Amino acid sequence: TPLAVIRTAAELSLRHGRTPESYRKTIESIHRETASMTELVEQLLLLAREDSGQWQFRFDAILLGDILRTLGALLNPMAEVRGICLQWRLPAAEPLVWADGEAMRRVVMICVDNALKYTPSGGAVTVELSRADQTALIEITDNGAGIADEHLPHVFERFYRADAARTAGEGAGLGLSIARTIVEAHRGKIRISSREGAGTKVTILLPVLSAEQRPRAEATLSSAQWPAS
Q1: Distance CA 174, CA 193 (A)
Q2: Which of 141, 131, 128, 136 has the alpha carbon at shortest distance from 68?
Q3: What is the rounded distance in angstroms from the CA atom of residue 121 to the CA atom of residue 140?
Q4: What does the pLDDT profile of the chain (229 residues) look like in tens digits?
Q5: DSSP for residue 55
Q6: Strand 124-132 with 85-89, pairing
Q7: Terminus-to-terminus CA distance in the chain, angstroms?
Q8: Is the dihedral of CA 209, 212, 214, 218 positive or negative?
Q9: Fewest C-beta in 10 Å: which of 22, 115, 127, 156?
Q10: How far apart are the C-alpha atoms of 8 and 2, rounded to whole Å?
């Protein structure tokens, strides 16, 4: 566990004299595991709010492209360091949706982060935004390890992790469960298709905010309400 790694690294540093380079590596390890632990605690808090009915969303009319551009600036350097080609494809006319911007940012972050984790150096990840009738689609596609057929029905379950070789040291198996909860709260759907050894595609579908709904949405007094059709 992250706490065990942190404790072991600290104890070894205290017991034995080390070179500056060795101390630097120990600090890096502690920093990495602390970040992992922080992420786990945040995920557990989100799920606790969901279970208690206290997870509140703040809806607003937002352009999904704005979320993707923000994440691109954050994730592109990470992909570059890993030797992965990360591409973002946005349409000229971006769909407008009624959503909690921070929550939807978390959903896309979870999905793209997963794609980067399981795509080897030299691979590619594509994030594409499009619209089909009254539905906005965000598709995250990678050519990484893929998921075996027997695991696909369970990927949205809490704490579920596929085979040990694919998930060793990579999260607690909560990300996709959180993503589905958020998407469904937005009256949307999230789907995943994959072929072992050939890659994975995650598709997020959200209802588009129509021109008729937008004025009512912006005039809504409670940000927890959904604009009338």
Answers
A1: 18
A2: 128
A3: 17
A4: 455 556 666 666 666 666 777 767 777 666 666 665 665 566 566 666 666 666 678 888 889 999 999 999 988 988 998 999 999 999 998 899 999 898 898 899 889 988 998 999 999 999 999 999 899 999 999 999 888 888 888 888 876 665 543 444 455 567 888 899 889 989 999 999 998 888 999 999 999 987 666 665 555 534 455 555 5
A5: -
A6: parallel
A7: 48
A8: negative
A9: 22
A10: 10
Q: Give the 3-state secondary structure of the chain.
A: CHHHHHHHHHHHHHHCCCCHHHHHHHHHHHHHHHHHHHHHHHHHHHHHHHHHCCCCCCCEEEEHHHHHHHHHHHHHHHHHHCCCEEEEECCCCCCEEEECHHHHHHHHHHHHHHHHHCCCCCCEEEEEEEEECCEEEEEEEECCCCCCCCCHHHCCCCCCCCCHHHHCCCCCCCHHHHHHHHHHHCCCEEEEEEECCCEEEEEEEEEECCCCHHHHHHHCCCCCCCCCC
| Helix count and strand count (H, E) for the chain | 7, 7
| 223: CB partners within 8 A, 6+ apart | 57, 58, 59, 60
Rg (CA), the chain: 20
**Model pTM score:** 0.73
Residues 6+ apart with CB under 8 A from 53: none
Is-contact 37 3, C-beta < 8 A?
yes
